[in-house]
Amino acid sequence: MYNDSQMEAIADANNFIFAIPQGLGGFFSGWNIGLSFGGNADDLGFASSLIDAIAANYSIIDKRVYAAGFSNGGFFSYRLACELSGKIAAIASVAGSMNPNWISGNNPTCNPQHQMPIMQITGTNDTTIPINGGNGGTALSNVFNYWKNFNNTNANPTVSNINSASERNVYANGTNGATVEFLKITGRGHEWPKTTTAGLRENASIRIWEFFSRYDRDGLINTLSADTFEKTGISIYPNPAADVITINNINFTENMKYNIVSVNGQSVLSREITTASHRIDISSLNSSIYFLNIGNNTFKILKNL
Fold first, then answer.
1. Residue 169 and residue 159 in contact, taking contact as beta carbons nearer than 8 Å
2. Which of the residues in the chain have pLDDT under 50?
3. What is the 3-state secondary structure (H, E, C) of the chain?
4. Residue 226: its pLDDT value, please?
């Protein structure tokens, strides 16, 4: 995951800690997910201890701990959502799935303690962990059924195109704003999608951070509601923020003007959005509530010290 994800640069730009543990046994063993491909170590205990060690040595917000992984690591991210949810706010799985025993049969072991926002990213040409199940993985439709029922989301997804070929499915309006999101990347195989000729619209790491940044363990923390995001395609993170905010617009096609206005109605910053993922330096603003106007849309942002 580390070599392909390009997540380190996103962590540096957005001031979060990126930890990259490796499951025992290397690529063909990996994390303990109860299947033939994976180790048999106490990986839940290890993950819990790792989170505690990071919290003891660094200044973190313990309600904002997330898990993401590729393939076997994607399975393990789901296991953390099921069995270590007391320390996990949201998860993302790239080219992974779930062990069927976690969510079906007589004694399913998935038992989260709170709503759990879920993101799944899979290529339509993935034959290692196929969309329709196989090779130990649950069909993704069954994975989504489990999590949308657990999170009490809408029964049917909102479907939009990421670009001319790829598709985004969002089961919205879950408990405390939780969503279940599926990015189906047309023509991609068993891989971690990153920036290519399709640009930022198929960069899994940017999508994952955009998703994670909206949640803590209590649910949605972004001042933009899930409904607003579905209607506009715009997300703003982090929010609250101290220095820089990023505006992601999945429908970006041309430059757009934005204007930040104080609670007194004074325009304090006005520029143009020139990319699908546009950064704005707000470090010079006083700590307060502001309104960000983009086209016909207005969003509330919180500036911290």
1. yes
2. 197-200
3. CHHHHCHHHHHHHHCCCCCCCCCCCCCCCCCCCCCCCCCCCCHHHHHHHHHHHHHHHCCCCCCCCEEEEECHHHHHHHHHHHHCHHHCCEEEEECCCCCHHHHCCCCCCCCCCCCCCEEEEEECCCCCCCCCCECCECCHHHHHHHHHHHHCCCCCCEEEECCCCCEEEEECCCHHHCCEEEEEECCCCCCCCCCECCEHHHCHHHHHHHHHCCEECCEECCCCCHHHHHHHCEEEECCCECCEEEEEECCCCCCEEEEEEECCCCEEEEEEECCCEEEEECCCCCCEEEEEEECCEEEEEEECC
4. 54
The confidence score (pLDDT) of residue 12 equals 82
Q: What are the Cα distances from residue 207, in Å, to 19, 60, 97, 100?
A: 18, 22, 18, 26
Give the model confidence (pLDDT) of 220-240 as tens digits.
875 555 556 656 778 888 887
pLDDT at 280 (0 to 100)? 92
pTM over 0.70: yes
